[in-house]
Amino acid sequence: MRRYRKKPKIDHHNKPEMKFVKSLGKGTYGSVDLFSYTKHDDGSTFYNAVKISDSQHYNSIDREFRVLSKLRGCPGIVQSFGNSLLQETDSNGERVYKMVVEYAAGGNLTDFIRINRKLSETLVKDFTRMLLQGLVSVHEHGYVHCDLKPENLLLFPRHDQETRFCSYELKISDFGLTIKAGDESVCWETKSPFVGTPLYMSPESVRDGGAAVEKTLDLWSLGCVVLEMCIGKHPWSGSSVDEIKSRLLAGKAPEIPETVPCDARKFIEKCFARKGEERGSASELLLHPFLVGERKVDGAGGGGGERRRVGLRVRKPPSRFEDIAKQSLKLKIISSKSSQFKRVSKKPLKMKILPPRPLRSNFVPIQ
């Protein structure tokens, strides 16, 4: 007689209470809402973002969920939860699909740049490293993101309770247009044959309609993102889609102002190489002089989200000050015959104690 194992009962009482908080935004393929989850046992609350799409855009959210499932645990990638999409019915009786992902309390890079304008060179390097680490994960799994832009790069604040210091971890999101490298993009079948967003699209996105999409397409978009972080405004700012298309076909790239530092300029120029193979790979760009000069102490090979440690290096003091701490106080005798005491020559000699000469600060921060 066969024994059947009883299915474990689901304790719905211990299931966190889910509550709608607010809408985070709407896009081409759906909307994103913020939900809070409160545990019954200890009353703790955590937050997740829920991406919602209707049946018309099912293919996009399904593609994104499958890609994110493959990239779980990878550095620089927004994490998804669950084994499948959630299917529900909205207030109009229409079927909708939901995907639960981690909540980025810092918003996206677009808003961060809008608030802070031009970012510091150190912050640009940090964000570029994190973005490249995410791209390495995407490309190593054989994918091309196809829509890299600041709006799709999310920021996660990391607070240090002791120092009250806040750093940010940058992660890539929105994989709705992602395809396998070597495949043909469905974007070329539409009226506007572009892969990605026009402001950040590469020349081959316009020129090679119907051709296979390669990983180097993402590197051109990366250059546009880095340029925007450096100058605080969009590449091709003020240009229409048709003007951008014409300039790309004419062999032009977004202008890099003279104010952009030399190493950053060379990095962006490499991303803007006309031939995709000349852009290198995400792994190679991580070793570019623009980034290796200020490598992180923590997380250099990981997610890159840890706060950079700042060390102090003490320069060796000049030889004349080497033993200053060991010197005794000096006694200086001022003679009464000195010109300054001509009229008070009968006064006794004066004694003046000189303390050791203080050593000037020689601490230099190591970035």
TrEMBL record:
Gene3D superfamilies: Transferase(Phosphotransferase) domain 1. InterPro entries: Kinase-like_dom_sf, Plant_MAPKKK, Prot_kinase_dom, Ser/Thr_kinase_AS. SUPFAM superfamilies: Protein kinase-like (PK-like). SMART domains: S_TKc (SM00220). Residues 18-291 form the Protein kinase domain. Pfam families: Pkinase (PF00069). One of its GO terms (molecular function) is protein kinase activity. GO terms for biological process: signal transduction. This is Protein kinase domain-containing protein. It comes from Brassica carinata.
